[in-house]
Design a protein that fits this description.
Length: 238
């Protein structure tokens, strides 16, 4: 067993304070969406191996994240989700990201994903998620894309990438489209997360500001945990 996997098992075996149970294993979209709204922050893990994905998950769990998205950026992404689901002593809500096909929808849900995220608006992915009654969060950027995703049945729309125009862009979009639940990613950090919530974000996604690809490659899990704590402190204070 790799050092990363051993670290993961050790952390999952440690005692943890009691958490509010919201039937995380349930596919009920209302339960899943309520959990996302309550927690308000999703750790998005994008890497190239199951060992690094599990070690990164371990690091953000230690820092306070309870909603984790594993992207389908490596071959064993579904196995990483299944491993987390099987050892779910922290009441995690697990999702799958970079979902691009109907087949990936089924693979992710079978592994234990309870919400699905895409980088763009893909009708067949939204349709497949509806068939399984799983929460779906497509990525969009322009008002047309955002409204198209919503009209196709997106439960939340991910503004991606959110880094270019910042919270003011979300505020402007929500002016004519206040009914759409929006979650920004790629551009959210501890210094601006309060601005995103003030602009109307239902939740935020933490990517490189917490899960810096270089830190993951170098195995600097302590630094990722430190950044996670800073990020979650900012979310709670917002």
């Amino acid at each position: 067993m790799s050092a990363a996997a051993q670290s993961f098992d050790i952390v999952l075996g440690e005692a943890d304070p009691p958490l509010m149970k919201l039937a995380t294993a349930s596919l009920d979209k209302a339960v899943v969406l309520s959990r996302i709204k309550a927690e308000r922050a999703v750790a998005i893990i994008r890497t190239d191996s199951i060992e690094r994905a599990l070690a990164a998950a371990n690091a953000v769990i230690a820092g306070g994240f309870r909603i984790i998205e594993i992207t389908f950026s490596f071959r064993e992404a579904s196995k990483a989700i299944a491993k987390l689901a099987d050892n779910n002593e922290h009441d995690l809500l697990l999702g799958a990201g970079t979902i691009l096909t109907r087949e990936q929808v089924h693979e992710a849900v079978d592994a234990g994903a309870r919400f699905l995220v895409s980088p763009c608006v893909l009708p067949e992915v939204i349709e497949a998620a509806h068939e399984l009654q799983v929460a779906v969060i497509p990525g969009a950027f322009t008002p047309t894309e955002i409204y198209t995703a919503h009209s196709l049945g997106a439960d939340i729309v991910k503004i991606f990438p959110a880094i270019k125009f910042g919270p003011e862009y979300l505020k402007a979009v929500r002016g004519p489209l206040p009914q759409i639940r929006i979650m920004p990613t790629s551009g959210v950090d501890a210094s601006n997360v309060a601005d995103w919530f003030r602009a109307g974000a239902v939740a935020v996604g933490a990517v490189s500001s917490v899960l810096d690809p270089e830190l993951i490659r170098n195995g600097d899990w302590n630094e990722i945990t430190k950044r996670t704590r800073e990020f979650m402190d900012a979310v709670r204070a917002a």
